[in-house]
Write a structure and sequence with these properties.
Length: about 190
């Protein structure tokens, strides 16, 4: 699954190592670019598609605000829905009304967010801050929330310890989890 083509999501080493026949799920807007790297089994999602009994929908994201948000370009997330589970992978986005609308529309049991408040020298964060994560948890009180992306890029202003403290302060530790590098999480 590829949400967008920034180098921390679609890097040269992965392109080199991945079998060109593996299924690659991506928004329709980037499918042609992915095919140019030799990938042959692209599942291009314009709005939604069903693949192996999983209904997959694309969602929009907001990768920052103002001029920086515009320069970051198009980013997407995905909702994966089976008969019994719905998982919303927000992708690289800040909290904004579009995320709330997707939660209201799809009612996911699980939500995966990019956290860490990544920020450039100037401007606002381009992914969720700890405050954004708390707002999301409050908006979706029945969902479990997984926080990823932390310390994956050098411009994250909030680390795991900082975000865990905010989670604990808001009594969300029973349903908001920070994944460690290499950790596997099962959506039971």
């Amino acid at each position: 699954m590829v949400t967008h083509l920034h180098p921390d999501h679609w890097d040269e080493k992965a392109i080199e190592l991945l079998d060109k026949n593996i299924p690659v799920i991506c928004p329709a807007a980037i499918s042609e670019q992915i095919s140019e790297f030799g990938f042959k089994n692209i599942i291009s999602v314009k709005t939604s598609v069903t693949w192996e009994n999983i209904h997959i929908s694309t969602t929009e994201g907001q990768h920052g605000t103002g001029e920086i948000g515009e320069k970051m370009g198009l980013v997407n997330g995905f909702v994966f829905k089976t008969e019994s589970k719905t998982i919303y992978i927000v992708g690289d986005s800040i909290w904004y009304e579009g995320i709330a609308a997707e939660i209201s529309k799809h009612k996911p049991q699980h939500i995966v967010v990019a956290g860490g408040a990544a920020t450039f020298v100037m401007g606002d964060p381009i992914i969720m801050t700890s405050d954004d994560i708390v707002r999301l948890c409050q908006y979706a009180p029945e969902a479990s929330v997984l926080v990823t992306h932390l310390e994956a890029v050098s411009h994250c202003k909030e680390d795991r310890t900082f975000i865990q403290k905010k989670i604990n302060e808001n009594n969300l530790q029973d349903r908001c989890f920070i994944l460690q590098d290499g950790e596997v999480y099962s959506f039971d």
